[in-house]
Amino acid sequence: MILLDYKDRRPIYEQVVEKLSGLMICGILEQDSQLPSVRSMATDLSINPNTIQRAYAELERRGFIYSVKGRGSFVADTRSIMALKDSELKKKLRSWLEEAKRAGITEQKAHTWIAEEWLKEDYMEGDMKEDDKGRKSDETI
Fold first, then answer.
1. Residues 74 and 129 placed together within one structural domain of the fold
2. What confidence tier does 139 reach under pLDDT thresholds 50, 70, 90?
3. Same domain, 53 and 115
4. Which residue segment(s) compose the domain that 34 sits in?
5. In b/e form, how buried is each residue of 92-102, taking b as 16+ CB within 10 angstroms?
6. What DSSP designation does 78 have?
7. Rounded to an integer, what distance in angstroms lies between the CA atom of residue 100 and that of residue 102?
8. Cα–Cα distance between 58 and 52 in angstroms, integer?
9. Would you give the DSSP letter of residue 72?
10. 32-60: per-residue pLDDT in tens?
């Protein structure tokens, strides 16, 4: 389900939180779908179950998942997850725009940069989804 980077300086539980929340945000893990058990995920990733428990607790604290006693953990309302992500992105954008204004970047130039990067990302995603025969693949992971 997820891959960890053992060279990353961040704690493993933070990487698990980032990877799982990313899967929720992009819709791979859908609302109300059940997450693997703590023990199962720990075994799959070859890490301590306490690490997964900590990651799940953090995801629950942030509102990404909810727990049902005796049944497990489930993906929360994806609308609230997307609203949270939208809020985070807007905050980053505001910060970037403030810095760009201080640097004398015009509104038109900022629009151009954003459009160029947006198109570049779409182009790169298209390339990554093609197999060696040029066929498009809907594989997301």
1. no
2. very low
3. no
4. 1-103
5. eeeeeeeeeee
6. H
7. 5
8. 10
9. E
10. 999 999 999 999 999 999 999 999 999 99
